[in-house]
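Sample entry (283 residues):
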Amino acid sequence: MSDNQASMSGHLKPFRDYQARNFLWSVSEDGRVATLTLNRPDRKNPLTFESYAELRDLFRDLQYASDVRSVVLTGAGGNFSSGGDVFEIIEPLTRMKMPDLLAFTRMTGDAVKAMRKCPQQIVAAIDGICVGAGAILAMASDLRLATPEAKTAFLFTRVGLAGADMGACGILPRIIGQGRASELLYTGRSMSAEEGERWGFFNALHPAAELDAAAQNLARSLADGPWFAHGITKTMMNQEWAMGIDEMIESEAQAQAICMATGDFRRAFEAFAAKEKPVFEGN
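Predicted structure, serialized as tokens:
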């Protein structure tokens, strides 16, 4: 039996040459860090039906990536995203019947599910406007860096919709707390960057000129770390939302035992014993 037949590596594929249709996609020279850039800067990078679908499909497929270990999600032209395009999404939605409306809301929700389920850590780099569905994409990321100029708002109530959009009522309170999430989701007001950092929505603030480098450095540190174990951590943080304490502890016992069986665990010990830096291979 060949090595490929004795492993699942033959089912993986590189994403270095992925050809994005609705945004920009670039990958570092070694393939480990990908950068996804929302790229309609003239309109503050709004989302369309097509970009939602491609985001859903790409993040869903990344579980089969042989190269990409972390993703930087950002926007072009000094803004992150203005949310759903008013004329390409909002106006058509006002003319749709319920079955099509439900198909749309399920598709957008599937994009969040795919982001949460992909094993790669997603680092959102947020400058300027980050509102509506753009704020949801930031929320769905694993880590968020921003500039002091970032303005984040969950605007749904301002257009007569519920704050219950794409998982916001479940995920946002877990990041910033029930009371603060309630304020943002009921009022639709903008959260300043300083508030976002103080409340735990943003992990750190950086000057605009340093934001991209900070996001790339953070993504690189994750990609070069024990990335198989990082994927387990992400999975457990998702799964444990609906567990009691006994189930949490048992699930983490199983998850950690899986990580202890990897070569990375052994390599880390051997490197420590030799006073060297470990090289993680994800197996």
